[in-house]
Design a protein that fits this description.
Helices cover 20% and strands 32% of the residues. The strands form 9 sheets. Strands 18-17-19-20-26-25-24-22 form an 8-stranded mixed beta sheet. Strands 7-6-5-8-9-35 form a 6-stranded mixed beta sheet, with helices on both faces. Strands 28-34-33-30-31 form a 5-stranded mixed beta sheet, with no helix packed on it. It is elongated and about 140 Å long. The two termini are 60 Å apart.
């Protein structure tokens, strides 16, 4: 033990003063009086005096002496040396291959198999945490990008509570990036533990890293592709099943559409490491589609759900007086096939009038054919970040427009410094576009760029309508949904059925598909849904899984010596002694007050 403030021992000079108080006593003479009526206290005074008597050592003396010594020791700053290990950072492989095991999956939700790599890794991590060797522990999830699972903690139970939130629903695990991040968190004296289901690409060279794999190789059949798209005669669905093993396998593909009595069954014969595709044609208006194969080494990739994509046509109105321009616009709209021509309440209005009366939700595209138009062959400057310009190429195109440079709104397409297409975004999210175009002097309408431009316009407007942009997404990706103009909060119900409320900003909601299954969104009086499916050929291939340990922590000394103050222990002891002193002194006074005084003689 060392002391940070040894000068505090000068306080020991108080000990002789305390002894003097009890050693020097006052001498009293016996006095004979006629009455005790005027005496307030008949006890013998024990205050210090100048006459030397035999030293008296009652209990109070020892209590006062002990409290003085404890206070002096606390003031001296006692320090002790302790050896502790540095922090531990555990990198958890969060990919869904960690769920491989013999326990099958229920109809909608996935259970953690008791013999899965995730279960064995969690038991090993728990044993490491309960060893009590670490100053603090951090848990780091290794998915497509690393993310911390809570804050650093020195409490084992709290760390295990965080470990229970390890779900293994990521489509891949970037362990290299996660390990680099873990070294930053651990520091020079920390340790990094990686738990996964496969071996490292090369044995760890850093003594701070230990790699433990808990996988078991095995054959697996999995869905590696699943799409659903709209066609003129209905919908088309593509399902691809792969045999991820070195031996041939057979499987039965079950497909069930909403409202069907019995699922359709397709027999599959798969060569080693080969796949087979099944293409289905669905009737118009077909609802939810579910497909599954038998249980095997990995259950999460044996079932998919595909929802129909809500392709809502854009309500378009035309108020174009120029007959030639009207014919060009109408022809491009009919070719796009996602436009519905209406006469009232349109979502998109194409006009060549200067002033129009529109609703709050109607976008306006004003096509201006100027009489003083000039033909431009470039150079055209195209804003590639704007939705109107996707796939647009104006090379070799002649575009005629007026020669004035000024135009309201942000330029989208310009010919030199002459704005051809401009965009004005209103506060409520509505867009007003101005297109300067004279067809008589242009070749734009004769090139593929004209229908592309109209298609981009319709697709952009449709993307801003309420609903889910993509009805089927891959596990780990983000689904984008648009809600009504007055919706501020929505209720999200993920596949685990734990509904939660979420705020909406700018009418846009982004939901990450963190688990496979169907997500439901209730926004005001509307309901939307999208499905998430575990589709990743690399993660479904568990034939590469293995078990083993790589790296040796014992090759590097991780223990660090730190000083710990013990002043708190001495202060606590002094408080306890003073409490006993107070109790003893109070009891002594009460005893003297209750006893009758002896008459003086």
């Amino acid at each position: 033990m060392t002391f940070a403030f040894p000068l505090a021992f000068l306080g020991l000079l108080a000990v002789p003063a305390l002894v003097a108080i009890y050693w020097l006593r006052s001498k009293h003479r016996r006095q004979t009086v006629s009455s005790l009526m005027l005496w307030l206290d008949q006890r013998q005074a024990k205050e210090g005096g100048l006459i030397i008597h035999r030293l008296q050592t009652p209990l109070l003396f020892f209590l006062e002496l002990l409290s003085i010594l404890l206070l002096i020791l606390a003031a001296a700053g006692p320090m002790t040396l302790a050896r502790t290990s540095g922090p531990l950072v555990v990198v958890l492989d969060d990919s869904f291959s960690m769920l491989a095991g013999t326990t099958s999956r229920s109809n909608e939700f996935i259970r953690f198999p008791a013999d899965s790599p995730r279960a064995r890794a969690a038991a090993a991590v728990e044993a490491e945490l309960r060893s009590g060797r670490y100053k603090s522990v951090r848990l780091l999830l290794a998915g497509e990008s690393p993310s911390l699972l809570g804050d650093a903690t020195s409490d084992v139970d709290q760390a295990l509570a965080l470990l229970s939130r390890w779900k293994c629903f990521e489509p891949s695990a970037n362990l290299d990036e996660a390990v680099a991040f873990a070294f930053t968190l651990a520091g020079s004296r920390g340790r990094v533990l990686v738990v996964t289901d496969h071996a490292p690409q090369q044995a760890p060279r850093d003594g701070r890293l230990e790699w433990r794999a808990f996988g078991k190789p095995g054959p697996n059949l999995a869905f590696v592709n699943a799409t659903r798209s709209a066609r003129d005669d209905g919908e088309r669905c593509l399902l691809e099943v792969a045999n991820l093993s070195s031996s041939s396998a057979t499987a039965t593909l079950n497909v069930e559409a909403a409202g069907s009595q019995e699922p359709a069954r397709y027999g599959l014969t798969l060569r080693p490491n080969a796949s087979e595709r099944v293409i289905l044609t669905l009737k118009p208006g077909a609802g939810r589609l579910a497909a599954w194969i038998g249980d095997d080494a990995l259950a999460i990739d044996n079932r998919i759900v595909l929802l129909p994509r809500s392709v809502s046509s854009v309500r378009v109105a035309m108020q174009i007086k120029n007959e030639r321009l009207r014919g060009l616009v109408e022809k491009a709209l009919l070719a796009a096939k996602n436009a519905s021509l209406v006469s009232s309440d349109p979502e998109l209005l194409l006009t060549d009038d200067e002033e129009v009366n529109i609703g709050a939700e109607t976008w306006v595209v004003q096509i201006v054919s100027e009489s003083n138009a000039q033909s431009y062959v470039g150079p055209f400057v195209i804003n590639r970040e704007h939705p109107l310009t996707e796939g647009l190429s104006l090379e070799g195109v002649v575009w005629a427009a007026g020669g004035t440079q000024g135009a309201a709104g942000a330029p989208v397409i310009t010919a030199g410094n002459v704005a051809l297409v401009t965009d004005v975004e209103r506060a409520e999210g509505r867009h007003d576009l101005r297109v300067r175009f004279r067809p008589e002097l242009s070749t734009l309408q004769d090139s593929p760029n004209w229908p592309v431009l109209i298609w981009n316009l319709l697709d952009w407007r449709a993307s801003q309508a309420a609903g889910v942009r993509e009805a089927n997404v891959r596990l780990g990706s983000t689904a984008v949904a648009r809600v009504g103009p007055r919706v501020e909060r929505i209720e999200l119900r993920p596949p685990d059925d734990h509904a939660r409320s979420m705020a909406v900003r700018d009418r846009t909601l982004m939901v990450r598909a963190e688990a496979p299954g169907v997500y439901e969104i209730a926004a005001g009086g509307e309901k939307y849904a999208f499905a998430s499916n575990a589709i990743s050929r690399q993660e479904s291939d568990v034939s590469r899984s293995t078990s083993g340990d790589w790296g040796d922590w014992n090759s590097v000394a991780f223990e660090e010596v730190e000083q710990r103050s013990l002043a708190w222990a001495f202060l606590l002891g002094a408080l306890l002694v003073l409490a006993v002193h107070l109790a003893v002194a109070s009891r002594s006074r009460l005893g003297l007050s209750a006893s009758a005084p002896e008459p003086a003689r």
